[in-house]
Amino acid sequence: MKVIATRDIGVGEEISLSCWLPHTPPFTRTDILTPLPDIPLGLPSAHRTMALAQQWGFHCACDMCLSSREEKQASDARRERLVQVQVLLRHEDTAYEALSGLANELVDLARAEGMTTKLSDFAFTVATAYFKRGDLATTEKYADVALRYLMAFGDPDSQLVADLQKNIEWLRGLRAKQAQNPEGG
Description:
This protein is mostly helical. It has helices spanning about 30-35, 45-55, 65, 70-90, 100-110, 120-130, 135-155, 160-180. The N and C termini lie far apart (about 50 Å).
C-alpha cells in the first residue's frame, strides 16, 4: 500500500482514512464489506456518522466529524453540489457552453472539501464530457490533467495509468488525423 500526503503533516497530528460506505441507507453488513471506489460524495454527514457507528462500531473523531453544525451543513451542501455537477457533466443534454463553468466549479468544490486526491477522477469526468461532444483538444487537456493527478496520488505503475496513457496517445493520433484531413472526408 502506498500513502501520499497532500499537505504537510504536523508532529503528533492525527492521520485518518476515509471509510467505505454504501451509497444510500439503509446500510447492511454486506454493503460495507463490498469495496466501493470511494465514500459517496453526496452522503450527508449524519448518514456517514450513523453508518460508522452501526457498521464499524465507532464514533469518528476526525476534524470533519467534530466540526460545528454550520460547518457540517456547508460541507454537506458542497458535497451534494459536487454530485449534481458530476451528473450534469455526464448528462448528454448539458450544453457544451456550460462545460467549462461546470469543470471549474467541480475543481473549486473538490478543493474546498479537501478532495485533492479525487481530482484525477473529476478531470476524467470532464474529459469524457468533452469527448462526447467531439472536442478532442479539450478532452486531451483534461485527460492529461487526470493522468498527472493519478500519477501523483496513485500508483504510477498501475494498469489504470497505463490505460489512460494509451487513451491519451490514441487521442493525439486521432487529433493528428483530423488536422491532416480537416474536412473529414
